[in-house]
């Protein structure tokens, strides 16, 4: 049973509600959706490895680092294990305007392990401490350098392991730890299985918080409901939502409401804002080497009507290659599920499309 120790600090923590770094998912369009759903969440990029930032030049920087002003506060997650490379990449990140630099010490994928970073870094706390220090040396004082990690490696459930990791990295100046509260199994489990099979142990994070009262701990892993987020954010310094924010994205707006009292927008209002954003993006990037297409945004919005009447047809229409190829953001309105006022113009549109 977790001890409820509501901290006054938790209410004001900049990490109270955060969205997870998710490769291939939490790109800049996805983050604009998250921001539209939650004005107060702190948003994390996908993991960006140091290579493209250091050797890639302007085009790679644009590709990996571009973001919209509305995304603030937004954190850049870096993947790497060479202190000088991480320091250079962190500096590039702050020059682009990121509000936080986060180091990935939690990803268990084989590819990442071959690069000797991600979760396997948990076995090398002094190396992580060195990297954190090198990054802190180059970023301005108002930009925190934070670490996202697991609670253990493989089947080792020793609390001392994660306590020593946190202690060593904190001594180098890291004050904020985002803890995915399950072990990472480095051999034999896919990244997906690694998000499901190792058991969640929030009590380990509770213990870390008790042992390091001056540090900030953000709880991540398996949080699904707004009530759960609100409760856990009182017990820790904040929560991080990953899959639920993506697959059932309206939950993020409901969580925002439960935690900050923000009025709940309707799903249709979210759609209208995203339609305007998409139209702007398409117009602004016309003629670019990588113009924004309707599908770049719509693919993140499939989960907006999860569990709602018409949710399946919404997904189906927004996944239809022929419709998407028209590259017309009005498709969002045509795909809206049956909802009161929209019904009047929806049926003729559907009839016309069927014809
Ligand atoms: C598709 C996908 C990609 C992910 N990519 C990253 C990543 O780049 N960096 C990272 O630290 N964690 C990554 N994660 C893990 C999430 O950040 C988070 O720790 C995990 O999903 C548990 O949170 P949840 O139960 O709320 O989803 C990824 C998760 C998913 C589902």
Question: How do the strands and helices of this protein lay out in sequence?
Answer:
Layout: H1 8-12, E1 17-19, H2 28-37, E2 42-49, H3 50-55, H4 57-65, E3 74-79, H5 83-95, E4 100-105, H6 110-114, H7 125-138, E5 145-149, H8 159-171, E6 176-180, H9 202-211, E7 216-220, H10 226-235, E8 238-241, H11 243-247, H12 250-260, H13 267-284, H14 294-298, H15 311-318, H16 321-325, H17 331-335, H18 343-354
Parallel strand pairs: 1-2, 1-8, 2-3, 3-4, 4-5, 5-6, 6-7, 7-8
Helix pairs in contact: 5-7, 7-8, 10-12
This protein binds flavin mononucleotide.
Please explain how this structure is put together.
The protein is 46% helix and 12% strand. The protein has 18 helices and eight strands. β3, α5 and β4 form a beta-alpha-beta unit. α7 packs parallel to α8. The termini are far apart. The structure holds flavin mononucleotide. The site of flavin mononucleotide (FMN) has 22 residues, from β2 and α11.
Percent of residues in helices comes to 40-55%
Secondary-structure-derived class: alpha/beta
The average pLDDT is 93
Level-1 CATH class name of the largest domain: Alpha Beta
Question: What is the H/E order?
Answer: HEHEHHEHEHHEHEHEHEHHHHHHHH
The poorly predicted ranges are 1-6, 339-343
Beta-strand percent range: 5-15%
Q: Examine the coordinates and then state which fold CATH places here, giving the name of the CATH topology of the largest domain.
A: TIM Barrel
Strand order of the largest sheet: 1-2-3-4-5-6-7-8
Q: What distance lies between the first and last C-alpha atoms, to the nearest angstrom?
A: 59 Å
For the record, the count of structural domains works out to 2
Q: Kindly provide the radius of gyration, computed on alpha-carbon positions and rounded to a whole number of angstroms.
A: 21 Å
Number of helices: 18
Shape: globular
- Please tally the β strands and state the result: 8
CATH architecture annotation name of the largest domain = Alpha-Beta Barrel
Sheet of most strands: 8 strands, parallel, barrel
- CATH homologous superfamily of the largest domain - what is it? Aldolase class I
């Amino acid at each position: 049973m977790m001890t409820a120790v509501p901290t006054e600090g938790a209410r004001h923590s900049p990490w109270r509600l955060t969205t997870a770094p998710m490769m291939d998912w939490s790109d800049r369009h996805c983050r604009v959706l998250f921001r539209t759903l939650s004005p107060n969440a702190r948003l994390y990029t996908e993991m960006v490895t140091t290579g493209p930032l250091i050797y890639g030049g302007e085009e790679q920087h644009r590709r990996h680092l571009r973001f919209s002003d509305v995304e603030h506060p937004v954190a850049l997650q870096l993947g790497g294990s060479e202190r000088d490379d991480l320091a250079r990449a962190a500096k590039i990140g702050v020059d682009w305007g990121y509000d936080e630099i986060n180091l990935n010490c939690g990803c268990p994928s084989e590819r990442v392990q071959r690069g000797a970073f991600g979760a396997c870094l948990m076995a090398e706390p002094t190396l992580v401490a060195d990297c954190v220090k090198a990054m802190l040396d180059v970023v301005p004082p108002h930009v925190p350098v934070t670490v996202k990690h697991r609670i253990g490696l493989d089947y080792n459930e020793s609390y001392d392991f994660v306590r020593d990791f946190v202690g060593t990295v904190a001594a180098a100046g890291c004050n904020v730890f985002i803890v995915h509260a399950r072990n990472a199994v480095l051999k034999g489990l896919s990244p997906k299985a690694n998000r499901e099979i190792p058991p969640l142990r929030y009590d380990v994070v509770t213990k870390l918080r008790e042992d390091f009262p001056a540090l900030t701990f953000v709880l991540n892993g398996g949080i699904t409901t707004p009530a759960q987020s609100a409760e856990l954010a009182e017990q820790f310094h904040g929560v991080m939502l990953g899959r639920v924010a993506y697959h059932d994205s309206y939950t993020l707006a409901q969580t925002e409401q439960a935690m900050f009292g923000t009025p709940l927008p309707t799903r249709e209002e979210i759609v209208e804002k995203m339609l305007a954003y998409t139209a702007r993006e398409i117009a602004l990037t016309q003629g670019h080497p990588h113009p924004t297409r309707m599908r770049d945004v719509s693919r993140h919005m499939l989960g907006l009507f999860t569990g709602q009447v018409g949710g399946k047809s919404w997904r189906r229409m927004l996944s239809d290659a022929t419709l998407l190829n028209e590259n017309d953001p009005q498709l969002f309105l045509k795909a809206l599920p049956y909802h009161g006022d929209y019904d009047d113009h929806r049926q003729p549109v559907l009839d016309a499309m069927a014809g």
